[in-house]
Design a protein that fits this description.
The protein is an all-alpha fold. The protein is built from 15 helices and no strands. α3 packs antiparallel against α4 and α3 packs parallel to α11.
Length: about 400
């Protein structure tokens, strides 16, 4: 009930401001320039539907993996999954309201041939303002989410580097606290500035006497995000490369035993680094394009939010690649178990005519297909504080428990 009252109050406020605002130019062309037209709406709707469908497929696959292998996954693995779900969910929310925005605008395009004949034109655009505001908040907050995810994975890398003695305890403590404080501070700043920016944009749209420099706020958000991502990326790559070098040096047997390229520990670490950085810098590129399109040609906004959505999609795909060894290894074990069961059944049938001692002797010789230590190390999770040698893996397992 309270949410309904709040929403009604917001709409009433917009209606009041819209009714008090005046339009100086009332030609069809000038009115058409205030919101998207047919071609832009159709293209934007198609792009949004494509990305929402891709996200649905990725979420379905990840949910299946999580449900099927949750007992075999470690705490940090599950947390990475939920962070990806958060990222995808927020981007999907933005795309849904983008769909609503362009759908409403398309309805206006198809319903009215001459915008000058529309009474209370500004009030007709109020739903567009609301949908655009919610979408903008979700989009800008994605920057804060990316910062949090990079910080989380960086903490895992730092903890792993400390466990395998690739970093001193003093350096580990200093770097971890420094990046946690910086990331938290900048994420909160982006969070606050996102709402400030949306509020200013709404006020400038519904009240013609309100003037503010929207581009300046966008630039401030971009600079904060760019500085944070650059600092985190440098340390992210530095620690990640140290871990990869350590893995290659101390786990040569794993790489040789892994016939599948994706099952190698250094490949999993590298995939996580590349996926995270691609997503982050796609957000930066999208921010630059957003500033340009807002300043010169709003019709091209489809480019910036497509880049952002693509960055999130690529990151989720890279995370899926990281978990490919877990799935393929379990599928391989299931096939082996099926063969063992088949062998057991055939041996039991062939030995029914023998005495109990021979049958028990025959059954005792059936292979159990135990997990190989080499495969266990190869499957050691690169996104949990575990090392890559037999001793350090055992130590990290004890720490997880």
């Amino acid at each position: 009930m309270s949410a309904e009252l709040v929403s009604n109050g917001v709409l009433n406020l917009f209606e009041t401001l819209a009714s008090n605002s005046t339009i100086t130019n009332t030609t069809h062309e000038s009115l058409a320039s205030t919101f998207p037209q047919y071609s832009q709406n159709v293209g934007s709707i198609v792009v949004s539907c494509v990305f929402i469908s891709c996200y649905a497929i990725v979420v379905a696959i990840m949910s299946g993996i999580l449900i099927r292998y949750r007992k075999e996954m470690k705490r940090n693995q599950i947390l990475v999954f939920f962070l990806v779900f958060w990222c995808i969910g927020q981007q999907t929310l933005a795309l849904i309201f983008r769909l609503a925005y362009n759908g409403r605008a398309l309805w206006i395009n198809l319903t009215y041939s001459d915008y000058t004949k529309i009474e209370n034109f500004n009030q007709l655009l109020i739903p567009l303002y609301v949908f655009s505001a919610i979408e903008s908040v979700a989009v800008y907050l994605q920057g804060a989410v990316i910062i949090v995810i990079i910080c989380f994975i960086l903490n895992i890398f730092l903890d792993t580097a400390r466990v395998v003695n690739a970093m001193t305890q003093k350096a580990h403590k200093f770097i971890k606290y420094f990046f946690n404080i910086i990331s938290t501070l900048f994420a909160v700043l982006i969070f606050l500035l996102a709402f400030v920016h949306v509020g200013v944009v709404l006020a400038s749209k519904v009240a013609t006497n309100f003037k503010a420099n929207v581009i300046a706020i966008l630039i401030v958000i971009f600079v904060i995000f760019a500085v944070t991502i650059t600092i985190e990326s440098i340390m992210f790559v530095f620690v990640g490369v140290r871990l990869i070098l350590f893995v290659r040096k101390n786990s040569l047997g794993i790489s040789q035993a892994s016939s599948n390229f994706l099952q190698r520990p250094e490949v999993k670490i590298g995939a996580l680094i590349v996926g995270m950085l691609i997503s982050a810098y796609f957000q930066l590129l999208a921010s630059i394009v957003a500033i340009i399109t807002t300043s010169f040609n709003p019709v091209l906004h489809v480019i910036d939010y497509s880049l952002q959505a693509l960055g999130i999609l690529l990151f989720s795909i890279f995370v899926l690649l990281v978990y490919n060894p877990l799935v393929s290894y379990n599928m391989m074990n299931n096939k082996k178990d099926g063969k063992v069961i088949g062998n057991t059944t055939s041996e039991m049938k062939s030995e029914r005519s023998t005495n109990n001692s021979k049958r028990s002797k025959g059954l005792s010789q059936i292979p159990n297909s135990p997990k190989s230590p080499v495969v266990d190390i190869a499957l050691a999770d690169c996104v949990s504080p575990s090392a890559t040698t037999t001793t350090s893996v055992d130590q990290s397992v004890e720490e997880d428990k």
